[in-house]
Amino acid sequence: MDNEIQLISDGDGLAVIGNATDVERFLASEGLPSSRDLGPQRLGSLLSTGAAAVQAGSSIAANSGRWVKLTEKSAELVKKYGLMESKTAGVSHAMVGKPGEIAKWLQIDNAGSLLTNPAMLAGAAGIMAQVAMQQTMDEITDYLATIDEKVDDVLRAQKDGVLADMIGVDLVIEEAMTIREQVGRVSEVTWSKVQATTATIARTQAYALRQLDALAEKLERKREIGDLAKTAKEAEAKVQEWLAVLARCFQLQDAIAVLELDRVLDASPDELDRHRLGLKTARQNRLDLISRSTERLVARMLAAAGTANAKVLLHPTTSPAVVRSSNHVTAGVHDFRGRLGIESGNQSSEAKRWADAAAETRDKVLETGAEGVDAARRLGNQTFDRATSVTGKLFSGIAERGQRRRGDEQKPTRTAE
């Protein structure tokens, strides 16, 4: 594979495999310096599990592999080199080389590619899925550090047994991940320790989502601005805690998935690709559930801010406080969703100043007053016209009767002969 590299995409990321120097130069030439190590030892071990792949696996093990998250820029790279669909669902690949120029990479014949074997591609896709989840786990760790909230502290402060169980689960999974890094695989003994933890994490996630939904419903029921301000302030304090719990749940679920893929590879390698796709679907379902819950919460916070702005004249101090709480919660949810890879708009509300609200009200009053004057004027004109018409008819009738009366008086009176 001298001066040649392999490109593999699973729709979420791009793997670049080859000589370490070539891989680094290729990524630099394409403007993709941010990447993660695929782990050449794991890659070689994974791809050499089958007897027919021993030679290929050892060859790849001598090379380097880097993973790049599939962004708009890296997606263009996939199109540029025309990766071909493989028999492994959702996985495409290509071999490219550099004929003389580092900055120019041309696609070459795939016939000699070590990764055209379906089992090898499935294994590579499995590693890519693990690396992608590990990156998300790292981003969640950064998120938890950024918000200055220790999830353990949050959990310990809770009296609910469902949350308290998370502390033990956390320790078990951390231990399993440590053993995996040292041994390079997940043994049956290690897996037996963590396989029962999924139910506890699922219960904790469901509990945290219910807490967020309860806050959203509570906001929706409030009508008085004082009650709304109190509830919004409560949400400002509580939402970040529950988002921290959700983030930790998601992180632990990804850790279990990483361990699970290693275990399936060891016990049932033929099922690895199907299992990878199943985990991917289950993960997306969790993301959708979290997305819907947080969207409802943000919608209620923005609605509360709108209600507060509409009542700022009567509540010049309380209304801006509601808007501030709304913006604090919305920004926190946006950051949380971004760490999990959930797209969202960073919506926020601007607190309406009392003077602006007063000016708007004044303008409306003046506008209404002007319309009232115009209406009165129109009504007066219409009434005058109708009165003039009636009076004219009345005077006309009186004049006609007067003329008839005078005519009768002027007629000669006949005397009886």
Uncertain segments of ≥5 residues (pLDDT<50)? 50-59, 99-112, 351-373, 375-380, 386-399, 413-417
Structural class: alpha+beta
Largest sheet: 7 strands, antiparallel
The span between the termini is 152 Å
**Radius of gyration of CA atoms, rounded to a whole number:** 38 Å
Number of strands: 7
Number of domains: 3
- The string of secondary-structure elements, in order, is EEHEHHEHEEEHHHHHHHHH
User: What gross morphology would you assign?
Assistant: globular
How many helices? The count is 13
Beta-strand fraction estimate: 5-15%
Overall average pLDDT: 74
| Helix content, binned percent | 55-70%
Written description of the protein model:
The chain has 417 residues and is α+β, with helices and mostly antiparallel strands. It folds into three domains: 4-122, no CATH class; 147-352, no CATH class; 366-404. Helices cover 69% and strands 7% of the residues. The chain has helices spanning 20-29, 40-47, 54-61, 72-80, 118-146, 151-156, 161-183, 188-194, 198-221, 225-267, 272-310, 318-340, 354-410, and strands at residues 4-9, 13-18, 36-37, 64-69, 84-85, 92-97, 106-107. Strands 1, 2, 3, 4, 5, 6 and 7 form a seven-stranded antiparallel β-sheet that branches. A hairpin with a 6-residue loop joins β5 and β6. The model is unreliable at 50-59, 99-112, 351-373, 375-380, 386-399 and 413-417 (pLDDT under 50).
Topology:
Blueprint: E1 4-9, E2 13-18, H1 20-29, E3 36-37, H2 40-47, H3 54-61, E4 64-69, H4 72-80, E5 84-85, E6 92-97, E7 106-107, H5 118-146, H6 151-156, H7 161-183, H8 188-194, H9 198-221, H10 225-267, H11 272-310, H12 318-340, H13 354-410
Antiparallel strand pairs: 1-2, 1-6, 2-4, 3-4, 5-6, 6-7
Helix pairs in contact: 2-3, 2-5, 5-10, 5-11, 5-12, 7-8, 7-9, 7-10, 9-10, 9-11, 10-11, 10-12, 11-12
